[in-house]
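Forwarding these from the shared drive since the link keeps breaking.
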Amino acid sequence: MSQPATLLVIDDEAQIRKFLRISLSAQGYRVIEAANGTEGLAQAALARPDLVVLDLGLPDMDGQQVLRELREWSAVPVMVLSVRASELQKVDALDGGANDYVTKPFGIQEFLARVRALLRQVPQVGSNPAQANFGPLVVDFAFRRVTLAGAEIALTRKEYALLAQLARHPGRVITQRQLLKDIWGPTHVDDTHYLRIVVGHLRQKLGDDPTAPRFIVTEAGVGYRLMAPAP
């Protein structure tokens, strides 16, 4: 007998969560809940749900940000459930990786039908691992946390973004222009000194010698790649 599908509901309204829990449980689904974006991302990583129902108006971060961070490592279907009814909001969410968009107030029968439809879909791309391991270096995408030999390393947003970008493509060279575009934006693709400074700080925190690197390798004039240390 197959296991019931697990649905994660991320919504700060306790009444909405209770209503959805009762309605979905009555259909045989397993329901887990989160009241904010941080908790929702953690639950998504730990429980690996089959479907996420996401509110956009969360107390700690915007639901669009939750969606972006989730899409960095997971292809789980996401249904946005929000009071935001403008076409622009819907387009932004769908372009950002949402699979469906339902506005509040909503009819429960239509909602359940949309849930069934999403659960029938096979994700077009597989989920990436929630974390990447490079010997003693671990990059946890779900929790945006980096540890070295078990100790957490405090990184700035730019340092984490750079390391995470390299960690998602282990062994592959990512050009300076691509890193600058992805992390600083398209207007900074020629500001290579930004990149050199952040790489330098990141190497210091990782104890990585640029002349004999364990992790970050410079491809002169091209870009950088992340490698696992030799066994």
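-- next protein --
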Amino acid sequence: MTTALETITKAAEVHSQARSLLSERVTALRDAQAALNREHLPSIKRALAKAAETEARLRALVEQHPECFSRPKTQVLSGIKVGYAKAKGSLSFDDADSVVARIKKHFPDQVDVLIRTREEPVKDALSNMSATDLKKIGVKVLDSGDKCVVKPVDSEVDKMVDALLKAATSEAEEA
């Protein structure tokens, strides 16, 4: 008659073998990807350089001839949109505190819209407090008891295997 621990040990061995097989296949996939990278990366880099060069040439031509883009300001030529568009622009300021002060002075009725105020507990700091103190301030500690653990001692391959398993599990749950 086998004990419960012997049964669990046997199941762990079977799981370890399944993960080893999966790890071998992931390693084979990575090796194949590395080989494909070595094979195709030089030509991809050349194509990237060519695309950057032709884009720069096209951009220079558009900038030399803005008259071609008065109305309409953009055109699609050979599947490439060229011309001029209104830039979004960006906002910048050197001192946020002085901008806040000026908003309060010049636009007091818009302070709640123009200034972000955010007070929230800092979880990292709270995690250093005792359970008694946390209870006093209304913070509950969740999932702090023992939980079942089944996980390998991770290697890089195991991390990829875990990511694949997680993705497969998510897909299965969605289906």
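The mean pLDDT is 86. DSSP finds six helices and two strands in the chain.

- D.
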